[in-house]
Amino acid sequence: MGPRKVAGSEGQALNIQDLIKLLRNRWMLICATTAIAVLIAVAISLLTTPLYQATTRLFVSTTTGASATEIYQGNLFSQQRVVSYTELLMGETVAQRTIEKLDLDMTAEELRGNVRASAKPDTVLIDVQVLDESPVRARDAADALSDEFVSLVRELETPEAGAKPDARVVVEQRASIPADPVYPKTSRNVTVGLVLGLLLGVGVAIIRDLLDNTVKDEETLEQITTVGVVANIPLDKSRRKEPGISFDNDHSSIAEAFREFRTNLQFLDVDNPPRVLVVTSSLPSEGKSTTALNIALALAEAEHSVVLIDGDMRRPKLDAYLNLVGSVGFSTVLTGRATLKDVLQKTRFPGLSVLTSGAIPPNPSELLGSMSAKKVLAELRANFDFVIVDSSPLLAVTDAAILAANSDGVLVIARYGETKRDQLSHAVGNLKAVGARLLGAVLTMTPVRAASSYSYSYYGPTGDERKRSSGGEKKQ
Ligand SMILES: Nc1ncnc2c1ncn2[C@@H]1O[C@H](COP(=O)(O)OP(=O)(O)O)[C@@H](O)[C@H]1O
Ligand SMILES: [Mg+2]
Protein backbone atom coordinates (compact mmCIF):
# COMPACT_ATOMS: atom_id res chain seq x y z
CA MET A 1 0.00 0.00 0.00
CA GLY A 2 1.31 3.40 -0.90
CA PRO A 3 1.89 6.26 1.47
CA ARG A 4 -1.47 7.22 2.90
CA LYS A 5 -2.44 10.80 3.24
CA VAL A 6 -1.13 11.86 6.61
CA ALA A 7 -3.24 14.95 7.06
CA GLY A 8 -6.55 14.39 8.74
CA SER A 9 -5.71 10.86 9.72
CA GLU A 10 -5.21 11.78 13.38
CA GLY A 11 -8.80 12.54 14.22
CA GLN A 12 -10.70 15.72 13.59
CA ALA A 13 -8.19 18.22 14.94
CA LEU A 14 -6.76 20.59 12.41
CA ASN A 15 -3.06 19.87 12.17
CA ILE A 16 -0.30 21.88 10.53
CA GLN A 17 -0.50 20.04 7.22
CA ASP A 18 -4.26 20.54 7.03
CA LEU A 19 -3.74 24.19 7.79
CA ILE A 20 -1.11 24.62 5.08
CA LYS A 21 -3.39 22.90 2.59
CA LEU A 22 -6.27 25.07 3.68
CA LEU A 23 -4.19 28.22 3.23
CA ARG A 24 -3.09 27.08 -0.21
CA ASN A 25 -6.61 26.33 -1.31
CA ARG A 26 -8.18 29.44 0.12
CA TRP A 27 -5.39 31.92 -0.57
CA MET A 28 -7.68 34.03 -2.72
CA LEU A 29 -10.15 34.46 0.11
CA ILE A 30 -7.34 35.32 2.53
CA CYS A 31 -5.77 37.83 0.12
CA ALA A 32 -9.15 39.43 -0.55
CA THR A 33 -9.92 39.83 3.16
CA THR A 34 -6.47 41.28 3.78
CA ALA A 35 -6.78 43.68 0.86
CA ILE A 36 -10.18 44.88 2.08
CA ALA A 37 -8.88 45.40 5.61
CA VAL A 38 -5.88 47.37 4.30
CA LEU A 39 -8.17 49.50 2.12
CA ILE A 40 -10.36 50.21 5.12
CA ALA A 41 -7.27 51.22 7.11
CA VAL A 42 -6.17 53.56 4.32
CA ALA A 43 -9.68 55.01 4.07
CA ILE A 44 -9.81 55.60 7.82
CA SER A 45 -6.43 57.33 7.63
CA LEU A 46 -7.58 59.53 4.78
CA LEU A 47 -10.81 60.44 6.54
CA THR A 48 -9.11 61.22 9.85
CA THR A 49 -8.63 64.95 10.41
CA PRO A 50 -4.89 65.52 10.82
CA LEU A 51 -3.94 66.51 14.36
CA TYR A 52 -0.77 68.39 15.29
CA GLN A 53 0.98 68.10 18.59
CA ALA A 54 2.97 70.83 20.35
CA THR A 55 5.10 70.06 23.38
CA THR A 56 6.47 72.09 26.24
CA ARG A 57 8.58 71.00 29.15
CA LEU A 58 8.17 72.26 32.70
CA PHE A 59 10.70 72.18 35.45
CA VAL A 60 9.59 71.99 39.09
CA SER A 61 11.83 73.44 41.75
CA THR A 62 11.43 74.03 45.45
CA THR A 63 12.82 76.67 47.65
CA THR A 64 15.59 75.02 49.62
CA GLY A 65 18.35 75.85 51.95
CA ALA A 66 22.00 75.38 51.18
CA SER A 67 22.84 72.22 53.10
CA ALA A 68 22.98 68.82 51.43
CA THR A 69 20.10 67.48 53.48
CA GLU A 70 17.95 70.41 52.62
CA ILE A 71 18.70 70.07 48.93
CA TYR A 72 17.88 66.37 49.11
CA GLN A 73 14.63 66.99 50.90
CA GLY A 74 13.76 69.73 48.46
CA ASN A 75 14.27 67.38 45.57
CA LEU A 76 12.08 64.75 47.15
CA PHE A 77 9.43 67.35 47.77
CA SER A 78 9.56 68.40 44.09
CA GLN A 79 9.22 64.84 42.90
CA GLN A 80 6.13 64.36 45.03
CA ARG A 81 4.74 67.63 43.72
CA VAL A 82 5.28 66.58 40.13
CA VAL A 83 2.62 63.87 40.31
CA SER A 84 -0.07 66.27 41.51
CA TYR A 85 1.04 68.84 38.96
CA THR A 86 0.44 66.51 36.03
CA GLU A 87 -3.13 66.07 37.27
CA LEU A 88 -3.60 69.81 37.59
CA LEU A 89 -2.21 70.38 34.11
CA MET A 90 -4.93 68.20 32.67
CA GLY A 91 -7.53 69.75 34.92
CA GLU A 92 -10.44 72.08 34.41
CA THR A 93 -8.94 75.31 35.87
CA VAL A 94 -5.88 75.52 33.66
CA ALA A 95 -7.95 74.61 30.60
CA GLN A 96 -10.52 77.31 31.35
CA ARG A 97 -7.87 79.96 31.91
CA THR A 98 -6.08 79.01 28.68
CA ILE A 99 -9.30 79.31 26.71
CA GLU A 100 -9.99 82.72 28.17
CA LYS A 101 -6.48 83.91 27.50
CA LEU A 102 -6.41 82.80 23.89
CA ASP A 103 -10.12 83.38 23.34
CA LEU A 104 -10.44 79.85 21.98
CA ASP A 105 -13.68 78.62 20.48
CA MET A 106 -13.95 75.45 22.55
CA THR A 107 -15.08 74.25 25.94
CA ALA A 108 -12.70 73.49 28.77
CA GLU A 109 -13.78 69.88 28.51
CA GLU A 110 -12.72 69.73 24.84
CA LEU A 111 -9.34 71.30 25.52
CA ARG A 112 -8.72 68.97 28.48
CA GLY A 113 -9.30 66.04 26.14
CA ASN A 114 -6.41 67.22 23.99
CA VAL A 115 -3.91 67.82 26.78
CA ARG A 116 -1.48 65.20 28.07
CA ALA A 117 0.92 65.84 30.91
CA SER A 118 3.41 63.24 31.99
CA ALA A 119 6.27 63.17 34.42
CA LYS A 120 9.39 61.13 33.92
CA PRO A 121 9.89 58.96 36.99
CA ASP A 122 12.44 60.23 39.49
CA THR A 123 12.77 63.60 37.78
CA VAL A 124 11.21 66.97 38.33
CA LEU A 125 10.34 67.41 34.67
CA ILE A 126 6.84 67.44 33.21
CA ASP A 127 6.13 67.10 29.51
CA VAL A 128 2.97 68.79 28.30
CA GLN A 129 1.49 67.85 24.95
CA VAL A 130 -1.38 69.62 23.27
CA LEU A 131 -3.20 68.32 20.19
CA ASP A 132 -4.99 70.54 17.73
CA GLU A 133 -6.14 70.57 14.13
CA SER A 134 -4.04 73.68 13.55
CA PRO A 135 -0.28 73.50 14.20
CA VAL A 136 -0.14 77.18 15.20
CA ARG A 137 -2.99 76.87 17.64
CA ALA A 138 -1.42 73.73 19.07
CA ARG A 139 1.74 75.70 19.81
CA ASP A 140 -0.17 78.68 21.21
CA ALA A 141 -2.33 76.50 23.41
CA ALA A 142 0.67 74.56 24.72
CA ASP A 143 2.53 77.75 25.59
CA ALA A 144 -0.49 79.51 27.09
CA LEU A 145 -1.45 76.44 29.08
CA SER A 146 2.06 76.19 30.48
CA ASP A 147 2.13 79.87 31.40
CA GLU A 148 -1.25 79.62 33.07
CA PHE A 149 -0.07 76.63 35.00
CA VAL A 150 3.02 78.50 36.20
CA SER A 151 0.82 81.23 37.64
CA LEU A 152 -1.62 78.73 39.08
CA VAL A 153 1.21 77.01 40.94
CA ARG A 154 2.46 80.34 42.18
CA GLU A 155 -1.00 81.02 43.63
CA LEU A 156 -1.36 77.60 45.15
CA GLU A 157 2.11 77.30 46.64
CA THR A 158 2.23 80.72 48.25
CA PRO A 159 1.06 80.18 51.82
CA GLU A 160 0.28 83.84 52.48
CA ALA A 161 0.40 86.98 50.44
CA GLY A 162 3.90 88.32 50.00
CA ALA A 163 5.61 85.16 51.27
CA LYS A 164 8.02 83.06 49.26
CA PRO A 165 6.29 80.20 47.42
CA ASP A 166 7.18 76.67 48.53
CA ALA A 167 7.53 75.45 44.98
CA ARG A 168 8.04 77.02 41.64
CA VAL A 169 7.48 75.89 38.06
CA VAL A 170 9.37 77.24 35.09
CA VAL A 171 8.72 76.62 31.46
CA GLU A 172 12.01 75.03 30.59
CA GLN A 173 11.19 74.51 26.93
CA ARG A 174 8.56 76.39 24.99
CA ALA A 175 6.55 74.87 22.17
CA SER A 176 7.38 75.23 18.50
CA ILE A 177 5.04 74.89 15.53
CA PRO A 178 4.85 71.17 14.68
CA ALA A 179 5.76 70.42 11.05
CA ASP A 180 3.94 67.11 10.63
CA PRO A 181 0.68 65.88 12.10
CA VAL A 182 0.84 63.04 14.64
CA TYR A 183 -2.55 61.69 13.50
CA PRO A 184 -3.54 59.86 11.36
CA LYS A 185 -0.90 57.23 12.02
CA THR A 186 -1.19 55.84 8.51
CA SER A 187 1.54 53.21 8.67
CA ARG A 188 0.30 51.95 12.03
CA ASN A 189 -3.27 51.78 10.71
CA VAL A 190 -2.13 49.88 7.63
CA THR A 191 -0.11 47.44 9.72
CA VAL A 192 -3.06 46.82 12.01
CA GLY A 193 -5.32 46.41 8.96
CA LEU A 194 -2.88 43.97 7.42
CA VAL A 195 -2.62 41.83 10.54
CA LEU A 196 -6.35 41.91 11.32
CA GLY A 197 -7.20 41.21 7.66
CA LEU A 198 -4.87 38.22 7.60
CA LEU A 199 -6.25 36.84 10.85
CA LEU A 200 -9.80 37.39 9.69
CA GLY A 201 -9.08 35.75 6.33
CA VAL A 202 -7.52 32.70 7.95
CA GLY A 203 -10.39 32.54 10.45
CA VAL A 204 -13.02 32.71 7.73
CA ALA A 205 -11.11 30.11 5.71
CA ILE A 206 -11.03 27.73 8.69
CA ILE A 207 -14.73 28.25 9.40
CA ARG A 208 -15.65 27.73 5.76
CA ASP A 209 -13.58 24.60 5.73
CA LEU A 210 -15.27 23.29 8.87
CA LEU A 211 -18.69 24.02 7.39
CA ASP A 212 -17.79 22.50 4.03
CA ASN A 213 -19.53 19.13 3.84
CA THR A 214 -18.61 18.31 0.27
CA VAL A 215 -16.29 15.57 -0.85
CA LYS A 216 -12.85 17.02 -1.44
CA ASP A 217 -10.39 14.24 -0.86
CA GLU A 218 -9.96 10.63 -1.69
CA GLU A 219 -9.91 9.52 1.92
CA THR A 220 -13.40 10.89 2.57
CA LEU A 221 -14.62 9.38 -0.67
CA GLU A 222 -13.30 5.98 0.36
CA GLN A 223 -14.84 6.23 3.81
CA ILE A 224 -18.29 7.01 2.42
CA THR A 225 -18.31 4.56 -0.47
CA THR A 226 -16.40 1.85 1.43
CA VAL A 227 -14.52 1.06 -1.79
CA GLY A 228 -11.19 2.24 -3.13
CA VAL A 229 -10.72 5.33 -5.26
CA VAL A 230 -9.91 4.14 -8.75
CA ALA A 231 -9.48 7.55 -10.36
CA ASN A 232 -8.98 11.16 -9.52
CA ILE A 233 -9.86 13.11 -12.66
CA PRO A 234 -8.66 16.69 -12.82
CA LEU A 235 -10.84 19.58 -13.91
CA ASP A 236 -10.15 20.27 -17.56
CA LYS A 237 -12.06 23.17 -19.08
CA SER A 238 -11.52 21.95 -22.64
CA ARG A 239 -13.80 18.97 -21.85
CA ARG A 240 -16.77 21.32 -21.93
CA LYS A 241 -16.22 21.98 -25.62
CA GLU A 242 -14.95 18.55 -26.56
CA PRO A 243 -16.00 15.90 -24.01
CA GLY A 244 -14.08 13.04 -25.63
CA ILE A 245 -10.31 12.91 -25.21
CA SER A 246 -8.26 11.94 -28.27
CA PHE A 247 -6.11 9.43 -26.51
CA ASP A 248 -3.80 8.70 -29.44
CA ASN A 249 -2.09 12.09 -29.14
CA ASP A 250 -3.15 13.49 -25.79
CA HIS A 251 -0.80 13.41 -22.81
CA SER A 252 -2.49 16.03 -20.69
CA SER A 253 -3.03 15.30 -17.01
CA ILE A 254 -6.67 14.36 -17.59
CA ALA A 255 -5.70 11.81 -20.25
CA GLU A 256 -3.09 10.37 -17.90
CA ALA A 257 -5.69 10.20 -15.14
CA PHE A 258 -7.98 8.14 -17.38
CA ARG A 259 -5.11 5.83 -18.34
CA GLU A 260 -4.43 5.28 -14.66
CA PHE A 261 -8.16 4.68 -14.19
CA ARG A 262 -8.03 2.01 -16.94
CA THR A 263 -5.05 0.31 -15.28
CA ASN A 264 -6.82 0.33 -11.92
CA LEU A 265 -9.96 -1.21 -13.47
CA GLN A 266 -7.93 -4.16 -14.67
CA PHE A 267 -6.76 -4.83 -11.13
CA LEU A 268 -10.18 -4.67 -9.54
CA ASP A 269 -10.96 -8.36 -9.66
CA VAL A 270 -8.30 -10.34 -11.47
CA ASP A 271 -10.07 -13.68 -11.23
CA ASN A 272 -13.38 -12.40 -12.44
CA PRO A 273 -12.73 -9.12 -14.26
CA PRO A 274 -15.86 -6.98 -14.43
CA ARG A 275 -16.79 -6.16 -18.02
CA VAL A 276 -20.23 -4.57 -17.75
CA LEU A 277 -19.76 -1.38 -15.77
CA VAL A 278 -22.37 1.19 -14.79
CA VAL A 279 -21.16 4.74 -14.19
CA THR A 280 -23.36 6.72 -11.85
CA SER A 281 -23.44 9.42 -9.17
CA SER A 282 -25.81 11.07 -6.74
CA LEU A 283 -26.97 14.09 -8.73
CA PRO A 284 -26.97 15.56 -12.25
CA SER A 285 -23.91 17.36 -13.63
CA GLU A 286 -21.40 15.45 -11.58
CA GLY A 287 -19.50 14.25 -14.64
CA LYS A 288 -21.08 10.84 -15.24
CA SER A 289 -21.41 11.10 -19.03
CA THR A 290 -17.99 12.68 -19.51
CA THR A 291 -16.34 10.06 -17.31
CA ALA A 292 -18.20 7.15 -18.91
CA LEU A 293 -17.22 8.36 -22.36
CA ASN A 294 -13.56 8.83 -21.52
CA ILE A 295 -13.04 5.60 -19.62
CA ALA A 296 -14.61 3.87 -22.64
CA LEU A 297 -12.17 5.73 -24.90
CA ALA A 298 -9.23 4.89 -22.65
CA LEU A 299 -10.17 1.20 -22.78
CA ALA A 300 -10.54 1.44 -26.57
CA GLU A 301 -7.06 2.99 -26.76
CA ALA A 302 -5.70 -0.18 -25.15
CA GLU A 303 -7.05 -2.24 -28.08
CA HIS A 304 -10.20 -3.39 -26.30
CA SER A 305 -13.49 -3.44 -28.16
CA VAL A 306 -15.80 -1.21 -26.15
CA VAL A 307 -19.47 -0.35 -26.35
CA LEU A 308 -20.81 2.68 -24.55
CA ILE A 309 -24.51 2.70 -23.67
CA ASP A 310 -26.44 5.83 -22.83
CA GLY A 311 -28.56 4.47 -20.00
CA ASP A 312 -29.70 7.96 -19.03
CA MET A 313 -33.10 7.96 -20.72
CA ARG A 314 -34.15 11.20 -19.08
CA ARG A 315 -31.30 13.52 -19.98
CA PRO A 316 -29.27 11.65 -22.60
CA LYS A 317 -26.03 13.38 -23.52
CA LEU A 318 -23.77 10.91 -25.30
CA ASP A 319 -25.31 11.52 -28.75
CA ALA A 320 -24.49 15.21 -28.43
CA TYR A 321 -21.05 14.56 -26.87
CA LEU A 322 -20.14 12.33 -29.83
CA ASN A 323 -22.18 13.93 -32.65
CA LEU A 324 -24.28 10.81 -33.15
CA VAL A 325 -27.88 10.18 -34.12
CA GLY A 326 -29.92 10.40 -30.94
CA SER A 327 -33.41 9.53 -32.14
CA VAL A 328 -32.87 5.78 -32.23
CA GLY A 329 -31.04 3.70 -29.69
CA PHE A 330 -31.50 1.77 -26.44
CA SER A 331 -35.18 2.62 -25.97
CA THR A 332 -35.92 1.71 -29.60
CA VAL A 333 -34.42 -1.76 -29.09
CA LEU A 334 -36.16 -2.25 -25.75
CA THR A 335 -39.54 -1.48 -27.25
CA GLY A 336 -38.83 -3.92 -30.07
CA ARG A 337 -38.87 -1.41 -32.87
CA ALA A 338 -35.31 -2.08 -34.01
CA THR A 339 -32.62 -4.65 -33.54
CA LEU A 340 -29.41 -3.98 -31.69
CA LYS A 341 -27.43 -4.30 -34.90
CA ASP A 342 -29.49 -1.57 -36.57
CA VAL A 343 -28.92 1.05 -33.89
CA LEU A 344 -25.33 0.45 -32.74
CA GLN A 345 -23.25 3.33 -34.03
CA LYS A 346 -19.56 3.43 -34.84
CA THR A 347 -17.71 6.55 -33.70
CA ARG A 348 -14.76 8.45 -35.07
CA PHE A 349 -12.73 6.75 -32.32
CA PRO A 350 -11.46 3.32 -33.34
CA GLY A 351 -12.68 0.51 -31.12
CA LEU A 352 -15.64 2.43 -29.65
CA SER A 353 -19.27 1.69 -30.56
CA VAL A 354 -22.16 3.53 -28.99
CA LEU A 355 -25.75 2.70 -28.22
CA THR A 356 -27.43 6.07 -27.72
CA SER A 357 -30.48 6.28 -25.49
CA GLY A 358 -33.03 6.69 -28.30
CA ALA A 359 -36.27 8.62 -28.09
CA ILE A 360 -37.14 9.56 -24.52
CA PRO A 361 -39.72 7.02 -23.28
CA PRO A 362 -42.44 7.77 -20.72
CA ASN A 363 -41.38 4.86 -18.50
CA PRO A 364 -37.57 4.57 -18.40
CA SER A 365 -37.37 2.64 -15.12
CA GLU A 366 -39.76 0.00 -16.43
CA LEU A 367 -37.86 -0.35 -19.70
CA LEU A 368 -34.49 -0.60 -17.98
CA GLY A 369 -35.80 -3.25 -15.60
CA SER A 370 -37.33 -5.35 -18.36
CA MET A 371 -36.15 -8.76 -19.52
CA SER A 372 -35.23 -7.30 -22.90
CA ALA A 373 -32.83 -4.89 -21.19
CA LYS A 374 -31.10 -7.87 -19.59
CA LYS A 375 -30.93 -9.53 -22.99
CA VAL A 376 -29.46 -6.47 -24.67
CA LEU A 377 -26.78 -6.23 -21.99
CA ALA A 378 -26.02 -9.94 -22.32
CA GLU A 379 -25.74 -9.68 -26.07
CA LEU A 380 -23.39 -6.72 -25.85
CA ARG A 381 -21.30 -8.47 -23.23
CA ALA A 382 -20.92 -11.38 -25.61
CA ASN A 383 -19.77 -9.15 -28.46
CA PHE A 384 -17.52 -6.63 -26.72
CA ASP A 385 -14.68 -6.71 -24.22
CA PHE A 386 -16.23 -3.93 -22.17
CA VAL A 387 -19.73 -2.53 -21.82
CA ILE A 388 -19.76 0.91 -20.19
CA VAL A 389 -23.19 2.20 -19.18
CA ASP A 390 -23.81 5.89 -18.53
CA SER A 391 -26.81 6.46 -16.26
CA SER A 392 -29.12 8.86 -14.46
CA PRO A 393 -28.38 10.26 -11.02
CA LEU A 394 -29.13 7.87 -8.16
CA LEU A 395 -30.92 10.34 -5.93
CA ALA A 396 -33.33 11.45 -8.65
CA VAL A 397 -34.65 8.18 -10.06
CA THR A 398 -34.20 4.44 -9.67
CA ASP A 399 -32.91 3.88 -13.23
CA ALA A 400 -29.26 3.72 -12.29
CA ALA A 401 -29.87 1.31 -9.43
CA ILE A 402 -31.86 -0.95 -11.80
CA LEU A 403 -29.07 -0.90 -14.37
CA ALA A 404 -26.51 -1.48 -11.62
CA ALA A 405 -28.28 -4.60 -10.46
CA ASN A 406 -27.91 -6.03 -13.99
CA SER A 407 -24.22 -5.17 -14.33
CA ASP A 408 -20.94 -6.62 -13.11
CA GLY A 409 -20.38 -3.59 -10.98
CA VAL A 410 -20.75 0.10 -10.42
CA LEU A 411 -18.36 3.01 -10.49
CA VAL A 412 -19.70 5.82 -8.35
CA ILE A 413 -18.62 9.38 -9.07
CA ALA A 414 -18.26 12.33 -6.73
CA ARG A 415 -17.63 15.81 -8.01
CA TYR A 416 -14.93 17.65 -6.10
CA GLY A 417 -16.35 20.38 -3.86
CA GLU A 418 -19.92 19.83 -5.14
CA THR A 419 -21.12 16.39 -4.11
CA LYS A 420 -22.23 16.54 -0.48
CA ARG A 421 -21.11 13.77 1.83
CA ASP A 422 -24.62 12.90 2.97
CA GLN A 423 -25.91 12.85 -0.60
CA LEU A 424 -23.14 10.49 -1.58
CA SER A 425 -23.80 8.13 1.30
CA HIS A 426 -27.50 8.20 0.43
CA ALA A 427 -26.64 7.26 -3.15
CA VAL A 428 -24.35 4.46 -1.99
CA GLY A 429 -27.18 3.23 0.22
CA ASN A 430 -29.51 3.10 -2.80
CA LEU A 431 -26.98 0.99 -4.66
CA LYS A 432 -26.47 -1.39 -1.78
CA ALA A 433 -30.23 -1.72 -1.33
CA VAL A 434 -30.56 -3.31 -4.79
CA GLY A 435 -27.56 -5.56 -4.21
CA ALA A 436 -25.37 -3.78 -6.75
CA ARG A 437 -21.69 -4.44 -6.55
CA LEU A 438 -19.69 -1.31 -5.89
CA LEU A 439 -16.35 -1.60 -7.65
CA GLY A 440 -14.72 1.72 -7.08
CA ALA A 441 -15.15 5.41 -6.53
CA VAL A 442 -14.08 8.24 -8.81
CA LEU A 443 -13.35 11.78 -7.76
CA THR A 444 -13.75 14.15 -10.67
CA MET A 445 -13.27 17.81 -11.58
CA THR A 446 -10.57 18.13 -8.94
CA PRO A 447 -8.95 21.55 -9.39
CA VAL A 448 -5.36 21.15 -10.57
CA ARG A 449 -3.92 22.90 -7.51
CA ALA A 450 -5.91 20.68 -5.16
CA ALA A 451 -5.04 17.57 -7.14
CA SER A 452 -1.35 18.03 -6.42
CA SER A 453 -1.82 18.85 -2.75
CA TYR A 454 -4.71 16.59 -1.80
CA SER A 455 -3.92 13.53 -3.77
CA TYR A 456 -2.22 10.53 -2.35
CA SER A 457 -1.77 7.60 -4.59
CA TYR A 458 -3.93 4.66 -3.73
CA TYR A 459 -1.84 2.27 -5.72
CA GLY A 460 1.54 3.47 -4.54
CA PRO A 461 3.71 6.45 -5.20
CA THR A 462 4.23 5.67 -8.88
CA GLY A 463 0.80 6.93 -9.83
CA ASP A 464 1.59 10.44 -8.78
CA GLU A 465 5.05 10.34 -10.24
CA ARG A 466 3.70 9.21 -13.56
CA LYS A 467 1.30 12.12 -13.54
CA ARG A 468 4.08 14.56 -12.90
CA SER A 469 6.57 13.16 -15.34
CA SER A 470 3.99 13.44 -18.07
CA GLY A 471 4.46 17.21 -17.77
CA GLY A 472 0.80 17.74 -18.39
CA GLU A 473 0.01 19.14 -14.97
CA LYS A 474 0.26 22.74 -15.98
CA LYS A 475 -2.13 22.25 -18.81
CA GLN A 476 -5.70 23.20 -18.05
N1 LIG B 1 -13.08 16.52 -15.83
C1 LIG B 1 -13.85 17.54 -16.19
N2 LIG B 1 -13.31 18.77 -16.30
C2 LIG B 1 -14.07 19.83 -16.63
N3 LIG B 1 -15.38 19.76 -16.88
C3 LIG B 1 -15.98 18.57 -16.78
C4 LIG B 1 -15.26 17.39 -16.44
N4 LIG B 1 -16.13 16.36 -16.42
C5 LIG B 1 -17.35 16.87 -16.74
N5 LIG B 1 -17.27 18.18 -16.97
C6 LIG B 1 -18.36 19.11 -17.33
O1 LIG B 1 -19.35 19.07 -16.31
C7 LIG B 1 -20.64 19.16 -16.88
C8 LIG B 1 -21.46 17.96 -16.49
O2 LIG B 1 -20.84 16.79 -17.00
P1 LIG B 1 -21.64 15.51 -17.42
O3 LIG B 1 -20.61 14.47 -17.74
O4 LIG B 1 -22.63 15.80 -18.52
O5 LIG B 1 -22.38 15.20 -16.07
P2 LIG B 1 -23.60 14.22 -15.75
O6 LIG B 1 -23.59 13.17 -16.82
O7 LIG B 1 -23.27 13.70 -14.40
O8 LIG B 1 -24.83 15.06 -15.74
C9 LIG B 1 -20.44 19.26 -18.38
O9 LIG B 1 -20.48 20.60 -18.75
C10 LIG B 1 -19.06 18.70 -18.59
O10 LIG B 1 -18.43 19.25 -19.72
MG1 LIG C 1 -25.15 12.54 -18.08
UniProtKB/TrEMBL annotation:
Chain coiled-coil ranges: none
Compartment list: Cell inner membrane
Chain segments annotated as transmembrane: 27-47
Substrates-to-products reaction catalysed: L-tyrosyl-[protein] + ATP = O-phospho-L-tyrosyl-[protein] + ADP + H(+)
Domain Polysaccharide chain length determinant N-terminal span(s) in chain numbering: 14-102
Record-annotated AAA domain positions: 287-414
EC number, as in UniProt: 2.7.10.2
Keywords of the record: ATP-binding, Cell inner membrane, Cell membrane, Kinase, Membrane, Nucleotide-binding, Receptor, Transferase, Transmembrane, Transmembrane helix, Tyrosine-protein kinase
NCBIfam families with a match to the protein in the record: eps_fam
Protein name per UniProt: non-specific protein-tyrosine kinase
Originating organism: Mycolicibacterium rutilum (Mycobacterium rutilum)
